[in-house]
Specification:
single chain, about 240 residues, alpha/beta, Rossmann fold, SIR2/SIRT2 'Small Domain', 2 domains, six-stranded parallel β-sheet, three-stranded antiparallel β-sheet, 8 helices, 9 strands, globular, binds nicotinamide-adenine-dinucleotide
Amino acid sequence: MPADSMKRIAVLSGAGISAESSISTFRDHNGLWRTHRFEDLATPEAWQRNPLLVLEFYNVRRKQLFEVEPNAAHYALKRLEQHYHVDIITQNVDDLHERAGSTSVLHLHGELKKARSTGNPDLVVELTHWELKWGDKAPDGAQLRPHIVWFGEAVPNISPAIQIVKKADILLVIGTSLQVYPAAGLLGYASQHTPIYLIDPQATGHRDMDNIHLIRKKAGEGVPEIVEQLLTISI
Ligand code: NAD
């Protein structure tokens, strides 16, 4: 099928899609923010106060990321590209969508395997090793910091994400508690005729939106199921 005649699917993914790859979520019963205070780890003030603690927190996450693999949900989304134009907007900082083969992935909250200069936010480097240390410098000589959007920082990729959602014929929302803005507000940009599928064991309806379909399953089960249905109806 020519790419420009394909229907467009936008995907908004959150920590839940990576849970079955053994990456902890943030707000679940065993999520990271139950055992850590985000104010100490994921804010510009935390970085000013104690950069070593912040580096250590992300080093642990990055080390784990080098050891885990994409799961059935990530791979199913790649299969959708056979018959649809698929754009993934992810709140995740892992690279599991890319490693499953998805070709259009927009990271709203940064990427764990990248670092950037504290002197120039546009100077971003790839990390090939899990450990980022105090004293590791960007090409401009400034200290490197994790390439993560911390609480209180702007979300530069929200504008392209809004455009993706506005153009979508179908929206899949996977494994997100929809508590973090502006990401959670993206649902409001979908056309009122665009079917929205929420795939999350804790998914709940939205009073003012009757185009929402709830699939209360884990991503590893619910995503392959909806993907097979979408591939079947596209033929
Ligand atoms: P969240 O922790 O607030 O919510 C996780 C959601 O996933 C919950 O609604 C939960 O019911 C659901 N969930 C748990 N297991 C699931 C499974 N197997 N299948 C499907 N859904 C499942 O996460 P969020 O909404 O993404 O919060 C946003 C913030 O968390 C973002 O800033 C993101 O950067 C960050 N985060 C990212 C990662 C990662 O990169 N993998 C991990 C943890 C947190």
